[in-house]
Amino acid sequence: MSHQQPKIDTSPEVSDEVRKTTCYMCACRCGINVHMKNGKVAYIEGNRDHPVNRGVLCAKGSAGIMQHNAPSRLRAPLKRVGPRGSGEFEEISWDEALQIATGWLAPIRADHPEKLAFFTGRDQSQSFTSYWAQNFGTPNYAAHGGFCSVNMAAAGIYTMGGAFWEFGQPDWDHTKLFMIFGVAEDHDSNPIKMGIGKLKERGAKVIGVNPIRSGYNAVADEWVGITPGTDGLFILSLVHELLKSGRIDLDYLARYTNAPVLVNMDPTSSEHGLLMRDADGKTLVIDRNTGQLAPFDQPGVRPDLAASHRHAGVTHKPVMHLIAERYLDPQYAPEAVADQCGISADKIRAIATELARVAFDEEIVLDQEWTDFRGETHKVMKGRPVAFHAMRGISAHSNGFQTCRALHMLQILLGSVEVPGGFRFKPPYPKPVSAHPKPHCKVTPGKPLDGPHLGFVQGPDDLALDEEGNPARIDKAFTWDNPMSAHGLMHMVISNAHAGDPYKIDTLFMYMANMAWNSSMNTRGVIDMLTDTDENGDYVIPRIIYSDAYSSEMVAYADLILPDTTYLERHDCISLLDRPICEADAAADAIRWPVIEPDRDVRGFQSVLCELGARLNLPGFVNADGSQKYADYADYITNHERKPGIGPLAGWRTGENGLTHGRGGPNAEQLDHYIENGGFFVEHLPDAARYYKPWNTAYQDWAVNLGIFDSPQHYIFDLYVEPLRRFQLAAEGHGDRQPPDHLRDRIRETLDPLPIWYPPFEDSGTDTDEFSIHALTQRPMAMYHSWGSQNAWLRQIHGHNPLYLPTKLWDAKGFAEGDWARVTSAHGDITVPVAHMAALNENTVWTWNAIGKRKGAWALDKDAPEATKGFLLNHLIHELLPPKGDGLRWANSDPVTGQAAWFDLRVKIEKVTPPDEAQPDFAPIKSPVGEGPDHLEWKVSE
Hints:
With 942 residues, the chain is α/β, with parallel strands linked by helices. Among the domains are: 13-62, ADC-like domains (N-terminal domain of TfIIb); 86-149 and 444-542, Rossmann fold (3-Layer(aba) Sandwich); 762-912, Barwin-like endoglucanases. The protein is 24% helix and 16% strand. The protein contains 24 helices and 36 strands. It has a 7-stranded mixed sheet with strand order 5-4-25-24-23-6-7, with helices on both faces. A 6-stranded mixed sheet has the order 32-34-33-36-31-35. The chain has a 4-stranded parallel sheet with strand order 11-10-9-21, with helices on both faces. Strand 28 and strand 29 (658-660) form a beta hairpin. The longest helix has 18 residues, at 94-111. It is globular, with a radius of gyration of 28 Å. The two termini are 37 Å apart.
């Protein structure tokens, strides 16, 4: 008898259609295939053809289906009808909502445009939102970078014309030693995981420098559990060892950096410490061929690192001399820094030796000819196979800017930037600082701002000050307090607006910025500021407009809610003008598009701005006859031109002979072409242009042809950052623009043109004997934004968060599993559950970021673990440092960029009787969407 097998469909149809778009569950911007069945989202997988993730998709990306179906989604425009914070709203129509917004904003624009403060959170459309704000005419615009990683971006761009993550990446195919600093698991997670996989497969070594050994640091071959805030000191000790042993790339430094450029050493000169220049403004070097002064870029010149220039009794030295004099000082020797860094002197030496060995003894040579900007043709491309990557862990400190610069200097001394095996830029980077705009702040009633809000200052003349020398911006960006604040200071907007310092505002307009909870330091204080009233009973911040897709903690504190869509219901543009998806070998951009239409009365925020801009008659948003210029954001993406031939998207533009890429006119079918191509566009570099991009004529010509530049932008790396010296000169009394007297010493000490290290400011303003423990937050791999911890799938991975304690502290305090602790800073205290973690710096505690939720928010049950056992360290951090006794309250920020220094936090810990819930216990807020159902299930019918 024959055996009958049961008939089982082993490959059931998942969907009846696949729609390709871009993920938004973190900032990686991976390509996804959204499987649709009967018009509903059934399944999300990675797009194998996509240049970012090659089909790899993480837990966050897969959980996008739950983000799309979240019960916390806002459903319609809302007008507040109760007091702020009560959560009492009534639903209104879009027409009424836009009428209200127009009624509030039109008078401001007509009379005092600066009284609008427009700040956005972790969106990816900053070129568009800044364009809207510029046309409105307010100087008060920025995104969240000042709260995130502006130190990383600004230090990289000022030093070498680009930075980590979105601006560059390791040469994964050739790197033999990969060293990461302060990298958690949230940013760029899929590409880094894939890249580390490549390294492991080839036997390359990974060194992780981080107080916490989780994620990438857990799979590193060597873990350096550094003391928080001392990364810069550790890096400068590595520099000391490399200089001492002579293991630096002298040829690279001479050719491609300002190491051979002469510095004015005349102490009586008003240009003391500035770089010497010829009549055309070109920096000067000594040519080894002639022994004479020459412009750095003169064809045939061979810059001399050793030669100095004697003139009028003064010896002017090259930057390289200053580097050697400073970092060979014994204060940077491993023995001198070991105790502060929490790293043994032997380990520091061993890492320096390993860096040098791999860089110079395992040199990579590619058989590829290329021509440099001096006209010299090189038969091969030589590389140093050492690559670095760093993120917020070294950035979010009050010494973060100089620490990031120190790391870039280390890379450059090794000759490992833009070479095979090293760190490589992603188009549209590299860019010299001169290719970036400077910040603008001139306000004219009823007119646009006189230029872009954000940029890169070159000296005191570029600061955003009014005619009396007062801050022109509400966040005090680009002032003497923080001159190079390239991303603004979102974390200071509410406190400054509440204080009326430097002036009062009328309307706070925010998008996707949860300022009433996890996106603020001093959370309780910010809530009080949002609800505070004056002697007349009016709110101190008169009006608040807020847009988000979900019922976050911030929603309850707004007066008008403009509900956004989920990322599967909207158009988005991941643009070369903003934050593209490029790789080192290719320029690329991408879109999102509505793979499904909303089932609620919501609109994409960018489309709302198009209509609101037209209602306000903003020049960039109306036609000559006053009609609305862009029907929605898709129309803007397709038809807007930032300048002739350059639009938000580079692919499938209209050229003289049909479709073209890069430069070209608008194409009505451009978005359709993107959709047909999986939602992205890629243009690969020719082989001769892949490396040495700042100096490579083939790359520069390619970039001009694509529209990245209008002309070649060759430049050399700035180990010595001259704009910093210009601010020091002002502090020394030179120039017409002078800093306040109370800031002179700080500017002289911290705005050094060569990288320095100084202890975090909280260390000097806090009793470190009492508050002896460092406290950090770190985002988990499974969640990027506060959105994640309301996601039905992701909550099962991180439903609440303990405070992790190292073994030494755990044993000393007598903690056991299930215990709780009171954690106290100079600002406040929290009571939270604790857990033991052995792989942790012995003087550091930490927790996952943004897990804790306020009761009533995000449609979570009032007893949800996120609200009862989850917590934030934000309650312990203040936007101002503790009083120092000088009568001033200094900002808890980096003095160069203004970045929030929330990783400088110092605490003390004591064991306490476990409470019922984590403290502080905020009263529940009423949500306009209520609580979600007890049981969540979405079944896509057959």
